[in-house]
Structure prediction request, 710 residues.
Amino acid sequence: MKTKALIVGLAATLWTGTALAQTELTMWYHGAGNEVESAIINQIVDDFNGSQSEWSVVLQSFPQASYNDSVVAAALAGDLPDIIDVDGPVMPNWAWSGYMQPLKIDEGRIESFLPGPRGYWDGQLYSIGLWDAAVALYARQSTIDMLGLRTPTLEEPWSGDEFMDALAAAQASGEFEYALDLGMAWTGEWYPYAFSPFLQSFGGDIVDRSGYKTAEGALNGDAALAFGEWWQSLFMNGYVPGTSQDPADRDRGFIEGKYAFGWNGNWAAVAHMAEVDDMLFLPAPDFGNGPKIGAASWQFGISASSKNPEGAAAFIEFAIQDQYLAAFSDGIGLIPSTPSAAEMTENYQAGGALEVFFGLSEAQAVLRPVTPGYVVAAKVFEKALADIANGADVADTLDAATDEINADIERNGGYGH
Amino acid sequence: MAVIDPANHGLRLATRYTVLILIAAIFVLPLLFMVMSSLKPTEQLLNDTSSLRAFLPVGDISLQNYYDAFDRAPIGLFVFNSLLVTVVTVSLSLLLCSLAAFSFTFLKWRGKGLILSITLATLIIPFETIAIPLLLLVSKLPWIGLEGFRIGWLNSYHVQIVPWIADALTIFLFVQYFKDLPEELVEAARVAGASWWQVYLRVVMPLSGPVIATGAILKSLKMYNEQYLWPLIVVQQESYRPIMVGLGYFFQLQVAWGEVMAYLSLITVPVLVFYLMLQRAFIASIASTGVKG
Prediction:
């Protein structure tokens, strides 16, 4: 009798233990040091772990500045976690490099997502983002009125000429140190993210997207040359501060009235609205091929080495609920990926202070080139723009950049295109 | 016979002090800026950068940045990790490198000159060039520790320590210093029957205070201040992160410059204390070895 009871007890213990034992999923995230972001992502992880008994996500956060290097190093060492987050334009490179595997989730769940947060490469979904980011032309209503300018709208943005007239008027007014702040102090990904849409609006691009085999014609064709001349003229005419811009001016210059206009992201909008009463967020100007802004931000995906991709996918599907999209938006000001989540937010709902950014993302956003070679091309593009801003010959610089990108594509066997 | 003109002497003295003060200001002002900025709200800090107010404790002064910095990142943990890695690495490095230098200087063995040359040649190889091969190596190495046996050194203290124990610069410092020691001392000890180990422990090392201090300071500064790339690629867990990787916690979309300055001020304190403790020995050793950091 005693033995029977013992066996029953042991079996019960084992059964309970099995039921309670969740398989551990490791996850890396880029938001270390951001208290609000950390709180939200931790909440999602806690909610997921408590919502089912099969999986348990363990989160490790990294400083954003070093996150990509940590992932690449871990991939080399065979030490990647199950779930990683990845910057949208970098995803094709990580997928092509074998760091990520396709994300198997119900794609019906992401039909209503903005295009930017959907991470497709080679015809397959690899990553999905809980938010998007957008850039707008920051302005004051009082400045627009003072200069006698038309207020551009999504339906009728400024043409390139109107934009240049606005800059000339601002400069001539003598009220500002510079007519426009492009954020030259923000180096790195800001350059291709914020400035390549101008190039696209002129009709050029960083690479030829028809096959992603070359930058020839896209980065050094007539449209690109026109863009380059225009870009250089901004600096030569003294409309914008150059590459040596003080980062402090980038943060505070528009607010303090040094600049008439600013080219800045939605993440800085709330801080600006707090200090500028008549803040306006205007659409990008149209240089002939439509007004364009950049798209895609951080997204979740599954590492190629994950032994539990179904668990990782289950977490990602759990994380893309509207309530979490809205929480991130309310917490850190980013654009929620779906209209329904936008309606749940303070700033992006109909009539909200930042609603315009959702419209901008929907109407003007263009993904950066969806190719593994983007990570190299982006750096080449950044250097070319800085050189042109500093007075380098436009045609020579764009030709050299084109050659460098082409050489990289060739070295890497076309990057799988 | 030249006569010293008191007026001329005073002018020269004033000129000399002016130059010295200007040079000192170049080194002191950044530190002053860092500490003063750590006491100001970010908005005021940025506004003050264009004037001398940047170096003065004026305006809205408080310790709020320090409170916020501690909220944002586990600063105590990062400082502890860096100090632990630094102290253990420096201690083992001084032992190993002095032993190597002792062998290069006093022992006679075939190929000694060639091995020393090869060792010193590693000084010209930047760490970045060997970082990836080293990463691949340590990720496959076995280790037996308190947690038992495991393959791979990633996410540990020892992966931040072991690769840095032996270094050519410290060996070179010891070799240079040992060469200047009176040979008679070593010979006398050997004649008196001392083993090489006894010579090292009882004769050579007790006379090597200045070079030990120099080696300790140079190595400590390198380990404490410059450890960024290596821990970045071999340590993924926050619990093992050192201070330099921790600095990244403060660079968000909107950089909290006041907190950055507070963090930098905090992590600079151990370095300053350490330097002030060993200042005399450091200067003495630089004078004797002719090496500066």
Observations:
- Residues 1-72 of chain B form one domain.
- Chain B has 14 helices and two strands.
